[in-house]
Amino acid sequence: MPGPLLDTLRGANLSRRPVWLMRQAGRYLPEYRELRSQKGGFLALVYDTDAAAEVTVQPIRRFGFDGAILFSDILIVPYAMGQDLRFLVGEGPDLSPRLLDVALDSLVAVPERLSPIYETVAKVKAQLSPETTLLGFAGSPWTVATYMVAGEGSRDHHDTRALAYRDPGAFQAIIDAITQVTIEYLSGQVEAGAEGLQLFDSWSGSLAPAEFERWVIAPNAKIAAEMQRRYPHVPVIGFPKGAGEKLAAYARETGVNAVGVDETIDPLWAAREMPAGMPVQGNLDPLLLLAGGPELERQTIRVLEAFADRPHVFNLGHGIGQHTPIGNVEALLGIVRGWSH
Hints:
Elements: H1 4-9, H2 30-39, H3 42-47, H4 49-63, E1 67-69, H5 76-81, E2 84-88, E3 92-96, H6 115-127, E4 133-139, H7 141-150, H8 158-166, H9 168-192, E5 196-201, H10 209-230, E6 236-240, H11 247-253, E7 258-261, H12 267-273, E8 280-284, H13 286-291, H14 294-306, E9 312-316, H15 326-338
Parallel strand pairs: 1-4, 4-5, 5-6, 6-7, 7-8, 8-9
Antiparallel strand pairs: 2-3
Helix pairs in contact: 4-6, 6-9, 7-9, 8-9, 9-10, 14-15
């Protein structure tokens, strides 16, 4: 029997809303911090399949979320495509060589770097009850490309956007290559036990509308179509953070089964503009969860009521912050689970 999260992603409008939180497995949990201190660096933790499975399950054990999301990172794809990957303390990810400096075809793929992630998925699946949906994920091609081109995160993705304007053919080849690896990567996660998938386009908000159509909507549509051809029972959630009013076109044109809504979007607007009957996910501001108090309850109820007439997965508008109090998460869950329509 599928759980409430999977039912909702397949189009059921349930009276009790399923809930999970982006980055629910991570630094706000003392049990995560303890395990991380034992394992060392972030990438070492991701590639220790027993530890990564444990991290994935920790928030389920503590809070009973309706979904568990694989503990991994979106940069596993460029790592498998042949870039070296390091996570520098206080500075974030570092990929080399940058595609600003070398041609795409100079990279030597290392597909075996994906295999441990599939092992983690299988180990998590073995620990979950049938009611808890296991979500796999990948970064969307545009967001992954920003790191591959620049070698690191950036504020406005200047180098990547400039390359896309200056040499759209070369940049299209990068997007196409990421897209193909992502399709195989997500397929491997499904084969290992993932029941739903999320595409994170964390940096989609930096693109102009025409570029958004080409570099966000088009590759995500290709991924969604191929995943649905291979695995029609596995729903795909698209999450283009920062898309703003372009979110409606994304929802209509990508073919994803559900759309994630970030905290900058008015939920009433999203409820009105998304395709009829399409499941939505979101969109409480993570800083409200950090702050807590009466406003947390008021805004949580506002989100729930805004999406009352369509399938809705309650979530944050982005990832939970590392300093979020455990008590606030417990309070949020009490509000969501106590609400019905």
